[in-house]
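Re: the request from the purification team.
They wanted to know what the chain is likely to look like in 3D before they choose a buffer screen. I agreed to run a prediction and write the result into the notebook, where they can find it.
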Amino acid sequence: MSFTNARRTLLLRCWLVLLLGLVALPAQAERIREIASFAGVRDNALVGYGLVVGLDGSGDRTMQAPFTGQSLTNMLSQLGITVPAGTNMQLRNVAAVMVTADLPAFARQGQRLDVVVSSVGNADSLRGGTLLMTPLKGADGETYAIAQGNVLVGGAGASAGGSSVQVNQQAGGRIANGATVEREVPLVLGSDGGRLELQLDRSDFGTVQRVVSAINQSFGYSVASAQNGRVISLDGPSDANARVNFMARVENLEVTPTEAPARVVLNSRTGAIVLNGAVTLRQAAVAQGNLSIVIDSDYGVSQPNPFTKGETVVVRDTEVSIEQQPGTLKVVEGADLLDVVDALNSLGATPNDLMSILEALKAAGSLRAELEII
């Protein structure tokens, strides 16, 4: 084994030991607010289209992004300035952008929101630009906020003599408190005689049962009832002030969630494999052999005989070979996570090979876990 492979194996084992130490920790109680939320209390996505001006020659090329010039013409017409038809405005200090923000629950008129500004054209950088007044609309098409302000870009770059350097990306930035709420999202909690709904972040019948028991035990009478594996119905007070106190008390109750089901997560893009502590492996025999195809091309020169009219040509000689590494059957088995990891490591397979092996073990019924590919 080479030094690089040995070092990689050592680092992998260190991470696995750390992971096993975390998995071995007993389940701890969590506040209900960390695993559930009340129905309706959520953020609302806002989006808008606007213009960033004041760029130092790094804006959109209007010949390639004609919508920037059209947007500027429309804005100027609203300000009482008429641009003659057919005018080709070659502007490099203007960029078309999309502006996004999250409108939190219970937001009121006049409150400020952070916004994200992202270029939609071919601008090189938004550094130093100013976002002009941009309406931010919700899914219903109504305007809920107005954004405007100076864009803060975290990236930087420079170029000279055909060479360039760039740190982070410069086609997007943020404006802290850059939007003002102009319209409120109607939200009435407990409109049905004080009835509320508590929704778990992850569906789990066992956790729902524990949450219902904890709430009823805390209040001393039956105020919570499970609707399904995620939703819990609460009989809250009809008075608004009492209802807020009721919700705060429920959110701060501590509950120990049930243990998560055995799961193996495969990331097909990066090759990452994650197993939780409940994964087990029944006895199975696995053989893995790599198949490689090698194409070798060699170029030579063919020259004609002297005093002939032939031409010198380049001749390519290609050789194709197929190699397959031998694979022997190995028995894999594991009653806990450490045994499973050791069994899989004994195969000596790459992460991509392990993905195929895990899928085959799942199909054979040996892998006792849910297999999720992301």
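For the purification team: The mean pLDDT is 80.
Please add any questions underneath this entry.
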